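Lay summary. Proteins are chains of building blocks that fold into shapes, and those shapes determine what they do. In this project we predict the shape from the chain. Here is one chain we studied, written as its sequence of building blocks.
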Amino acid sequence: MEIQHKEIWFLTGSQHLYGPQTLKQVAADAEAIVAGLNSSGNLPVNLVYKPILTTEGEITSLCRQVNSNPACIGVIPWMHTFSPAKMWIRGLGELGKPVCHLHTQYRAGIPWDSIDMDYMNLHQSAHGDREFGYMMTRMRKARKVVAGHWQSARVQEKLSVWARVALGADALRNMKVARFGDNMREVAVTEGDKVEAQMRFGISVNGYDSSDITGRLASIATTDIDRLLEEYEAGYDLAPALRKNGAQRASLVEAARIELGMRAFLEEGGFDAFTDTFENLGALRQLPGIAVQRLMADGYGFGAEGDWKTAALVAACKIMAKGLKGGTSFMEDYTYHFGENKSLVLGSHMLEICPSIASGRPSCEVHPLGIGGKEDPVRLVFNSPAGPGINASLIDMGNRFRLVVNEVEAVSTPAELPKLPVARVFWDAKPNLEAAATAWILAGGAHHTVYSQALTTAYMEDFADIFGIELLVIDAETRIREFKDRIRANEVYYQHFRHGM
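And here is the predicted shape, written in a compact code that computers can read:
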């Protein structure tokens, strides 16, 4: 997704009651705010000024333009003066893209010596935005509200978070997910209603056979394989057996061939995310390891064992995190280290952890897998850096989608792991492992997650709000009794109220 071609439109509400001079100043102030926010460098996409809106016809026409313009990913409305909200009903009723209501005013402070009624008539956001807010609430329109002066760092950070989530939401609405094989047999949480997902998020999920990849492998040029092998050698520390003339060099050649075949299929089909499963490998000689890792590093979403929901969420989160410090990867809570003072999770998977979360130069190795009945696969092995992060899981609850988020603190690898041939990260789950695992299980969170050190809970909250889905957060303040009550209350809300909205 080329985010440089995306934009957010800035909508300014007013009315003709105040006369042409005031409206001229309203327009000038709005243009100055847009220019200031763009020049701050804090927004991931360009903010576009639109002429001020003073009538129902202007508002409705612009909202229709928002819907039909593929470059526009959302709007930021602001009521500089008082804009009677009944004028907004038709337009808001048709508006189908994310909204971030900016509650601000052009000047930060009151000019004590010169303030008069002209100033008061111009700076009416304090009650103009409340009128607009009432109508959004009355219409049950999902939106983010950011209050504060537009030049403050706090306000600009909140706008940036929302804008990045709007990018992710736009990507989901146009996302294609390829499943190589079906779901891993008898597994529940990786299943889900793909039709409902397309209606809710926009993602299109379809299945393909492993032959769609293997059928391409024989035609891949030797020169392309050699070029990719050189890329491996330049980017990773190859195990001796994988180097030229090494005993397992053929495994690396086959891994490169698989990567080229998968990449070609995904590019030609316009896919943004994919899944595979070791139970449906067909003629593939090894489970894709380094291929999946490198595709994720390039921005593709991935979910193991047919987990299309996690694959789509990985892709959306990578869009949100583009340009931010820290990596984002498919992840699994694999095993625990229970300690007297602190318990840790070892997060990993058989092969498929994205090198965007590597703390150093990855090692390229080949080891027995033990399941799948195929040749030993090539993979990248590395540790991950310490620091704050999140784990997020998107699950299908039958009557709704639920997003479960656990805030974590990654720690340096406590000891050497000479016999563990996988990429890994250790984290301390908040508030502690016992409480976090209890809450996660009560929430029905999956064993697969999106792990990110680039994103925070604030991104996930905006994501849930944009799509109107349930959010459950497990953080330092989580108490199990209260968490149970929240789950019960949510069940009633989504069963009897939200379902009809």
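What the prediction tells us: The first helix runs from residue 20 to 39.
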